[in-house]
Amino acid sequence: MPAKLGRYEQDLIRLFVSAYENFAWAASDIKRLDEEKDSAIEALVKRTDGLTMAIEHTLIEPFIGDRSDLAKFERQAIRRRIEDDKSLAVPNTGIKIFVPVGIFDGQKPANRDVIVESIYCWIVNHRLHLREGMHQYLCDVPGMPPVTLTVERNRFGLPRPYPGYVLVGRQQVTNDLHKVIKNALEKKLPKLVKEKADRHVLLLERDEFNFFPDLIFNEIERQRSNFLLLENVDEIWHVETIFYKQGGHVYFELRRGEQVLETMTFENGDLTGHSKEGMPYPI
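Above: the chain's sequence. Below: its structure in token form.
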């Protein structure tokens, strides 16, 4: 069945087109082909003078399985269980607990609850005795192998009392970005270049802090010889959406390797920044 794009993806494409090439495509018609037929690109854009642009978008995960692991992590509510308990905070101290990715894989709901409670109890018992800086600790889990926690403790030298905090995140344990890029190019390039258009644009979205766009584009260059269809892609843009949900922040940048050629920044749908080769455009 044809895909049903959510408003989120539609907004990204609409924002991109609205300021692309110094607003030259702002009045264009955006046809969402992915909603009409199987294996189609997400958008075919037609300018008032008849020039066309094919756009395909994909989310680049930091590692294979990131989305599913994040869903398990959020569903288990481990972050809420720990961060909402303000009694765990140590005055004038910041504590960050990183739980290894995949910790809930293959576990029954009851076992997942045991893992969460074990980590919670470990924090209760050890939060006052952590070493300064980042270190690894073993957390015992009844009936299961221990969990290795990466914990960062920073004591603040503030002139006034500060309540402190305890935050929980996920710790990536594998580096397979090369596989993520390979899968994305294999899936997206054929249908993008197959679409008849004057221009073909690939949007690569990044919505997490734990890896940088340079890693993505360096990996594309490393694999370029294996993907001849890249020669038919006119532009590859990095789309940063880390703060999209919190404040509607979207940052587009056109890249050639590590070189940034153009940028567009939006806040809640409004264009707030626009540059080409380091020089700002008037907004």
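Residues 109-126 form the longest helix (18 residues).
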